[in-house]
Amino acid sequence: MAIRHGADALGLVGKMPNGPGPIPDWLIAEIAKTIHPPIATFLLTSNQSSEEIIHHVKRVDTNTVQIVDELTSGTYRDIKVSLPYLKIVQVIHVNDEESIEEAIRISAEVDALLLDSGQPKGSIKTLGGTGNIHDWEISREIVKNVKIPVFLAGGLNALNVRSAIEIVRPFGVDVCSGVRTNGRLDAEKLTAFVNAVHSKS
User: Fold this and answer.
1) CB-CB neighbours of 183 under 10 Å
2) Burial of 162 (0-12, 13-18, 19+ CB in 10 A)
3) For residue 145, is pLDDT > 60?
4) How far is Cα 160 from Cα 57, in angstroms, rounded to an integer?
5) Can you list the alpha helix ranges (DSSP code H) found in 12-49?
6) Spatial CB neighbours of 157, under 8 Å, sequence gap ≥ 6
7) Cis omega (within 30 of 0) for bond into 38
8) How many CA atoms lie within 13 A of 126 on its CB side?
9) Residue 96: in which H helix or E strand, if any?
10) For residue range 37-81, what is the model confidence (pLDDT) as tens digits?
11) This prediction's pTM
C-alpha cells in the first residue's frame, strides 16, 4: 500500500521499548525480499552496539539501517567494514539546541540523519512513533549545518507536512502515526499525506 501511494522507502520496525508497528525479524526479512530498487528498505533498530546492529541487519537483510537510539558500544566504522553495502541513518531526537552539535558531530560518520521527537532519556523511553512534533527551527539549523541528507520525522501529517518542508527544507520526510488509524496504515491518510508533500504552497 505504501509503495502504491508513492513511498520511496519502507521503515520496518524491529523490537522497540514501546511505540507502534514493531514486527518480528522473520517478517522483516520476508518483506525485504519482496522489495526491489529504487525502493529502499530501512530496518529500524533500537540496538545500541555496533555488534548487535550488524547481527540484526544480517538477520533481516535490508539495504539501510535506521539506528533510533545512540550508539554506546563500538563504532559506525565497525558497521561499515562489516556491511559495506549498507546505508546508515542515525536518528537525532531533537529536544534542544544541543541536538545541533550532536548532529554535526555524528554527520561525519553516517550516510544520513533523521530528526525525530523521541525522548530516549525520559522516564518512559520513546524512540519514535510518538505523533509529537519538535522545534522545526532547530531542525532547520541542523539541515543548514551538515553536508549529508537529513530526513524529518515527528508528528507529521497531511495538515502540517507542507509547512514542515518549507521551514526545514529536509532531503525527505518520514511518517508513521500520521498515516495510521487504530494502528494500521490508512489509504486515505496516505493519499492526503503524499498529495500534501508534493503540493506547491
Assistant:
1) 9
2) middle
3) yes
4) 33
5) 25-34
6) 175, 178, 179, 189, 193
7) yes
8) 17
9) none
10) 999 999 999 999 999 999 999 999 999 999 999 999 999 999 999
11) 0.92
CB-based burial, 21-35: b 16+ in 10 Å, e otherwise: bbeeeeebbeebeee
Report which residue type is found at 79: I
What the block records as the C-alpha cell of 52 is: 548487535
pLDDT tens column, 1-39? 999 999 999 999 999 877 767 899 999 999 999 999 999
Pairs from 180-186 (Cβ < 8 Å, separation ≥ 24): 180/20, 183/20, 183/21, 185/1, 185/2
Q: Which three cell numbers stand for residue 133?
A: 512534533
Could you give the 3-state DSSP secondary structure of residue 183? coil
3-state secondary structure of 165: helix
CB 147 within 8 A of CB 174: no
Residue count of the chain: 201
**What letter would DSSP give residue 119?**
B
List the Cα angle 169/175/181 in 5-degree steps.
145
How confident is the model at residue 141, as a pLDDT? 97
C-alpha cell, 141: 539549523
| Residues 5, 71: Cα–Cα separation, whole Å | 33
Cell readout for 198 is 508534493
39 in Cβ contact with 67 (< 8 Å)? no
Any idea which fold 9-198 has?
TIM Barrel (3.20.20)
